Amino acid sequence: MNDAQLLRYSRHILLNELGDEGQEQLLKSHVLIVGAGGLGSPVAMYLTASGVGHITLIDNDRVDLTNLQRQIVHTTSRIGVLKTESARRAMLALNPDIQITCIDQRADRTLLEKIISGVDVVVDCCDNFATRHDINWACVKNRKPLVSGAVIRLDGQLTSFDTQIADSPCYACLFPPDRAPEEVSCATMGVLAPLVGVIGSLQATQAIQLLTNLGTSLVGRLQLFDGRSLSWTELQIKKDPQCTVCSNSHLMP
Fold first, then answer.
1. pTM of the predicted structure, to 2 decimals
2. Res. 249: pLDDT tops 70
3. Rounded to 5 degrees, what are φ and ψ at 128?
4. Which of 17, 24, 107, 108 qualifies as a FRET site for 59, CA 20 to 30 Å off?
5. Helix or strand or coil: residue 236?
6. What are phi and psi of 209, to 5 degrees?
7. Alpha-carbon distance 24 to 29, whole Å?
8. Is residue 53 exposed (0-12), middle (13-18) or buried (19+ Cβ within 10 Å)?
9. Which residues, 6+ apart, have CB-to-CB distance to 152 below 8 Å?
10. 173 a catalytic residue
């Protein structure tokens, strides 16, 4: 680290659990964020501020006025701009020393398979069931840790998956692809703005923990947040021996 970086990241370096070695690891790391919306906003900004050296953003949407109630990486002046480009501008304004790769496409399996092998951690900030399963499939195939978060109305959930750990479940163990729930969205159900900040900030925290071996991961634990009472419930989740993704010798086609 140079002198400017030592000053910028000094509050991290002061942490015994992180220190200069942990900060150096962040600077060498590559994180993929899928979705530059409500969850992706705090994830992108906190990982940028924390000095993750390379961040790749995937999102094919453009900034809309209705996004600005909760997607704080964007601004009114950037309505109509691609979300990845809008986020890139905000991230570089905060920390010009990091590398940002923008991909303005839908995150399907073909795209994810090309990208995920070259990253260290994947953070799922998308908003639909099909894409979540495509992300999970690619992470299992490439044995990459995945930080998953979701928010709707006044409820949030957070967990991590890492098939490098023998008994780790995957997203399909928790939500089997052949039993898809009814799709819901903020556009029809609503969402309390700060809740995406709560869950997104914790996704960023977990990504940093996985990158630096700091603390305990959420693998095997699903945390549920109730925004009505500001209370947490934790559930244990286990690997499904019949899972069509992580328990087979081959992945879903």
1. 0.94
2. no
3. -150, 150
4. 24
5. strand
6. -60, -45
7. 9
8. middle
9. 184, 185, 186, 189, 191
10. no
Beta pairing, strands 30-34 & 121-124: parallel
Which helix (H) or strand (E) is 123 found in, with range?
Answer: strand 121-124
Beta bridge partner(s), residue 22: none
CATH architecture of the domain 3-236 equals 3-Layer(aba) Sandwich (3.40)
Residues in the chain, overall count: 253
72 Cβ contact partners less than 8 Å away, ≥ 6 residues apart? 41, 42, 45, 197
Q: How far apart are CA 178 and CA 163, in angstroms?
A: 21
Local confidence band at 184 (pLDDT 50, 70, 90 cut-offs) = low
The sign of the dihedral angle between the CA atoms of 104, 68, 192, 218 is: positive
For residue 251, CA distances in Å to 25, 133, 141 come to 31, 12, 7
d(CA 246, CA 252): 9
Structure-token pair, residue 102: 């923008």
pLDDT tops 70 at residue 78: yes
Q: Which two tokens stand for residue 119?
A: 């990253």
User: Is 122's pLDDT higher than 60?
Assistant: yes
3-state secondary structure 65-78: HHHHHCCCCCCHHH
Q: What is the pLDDT of residue 187?
A: 64
In terms of DSSP bridges, do strands 121-124 and 146-152 run parallel, antiparallel, or are they unpaired? parallel
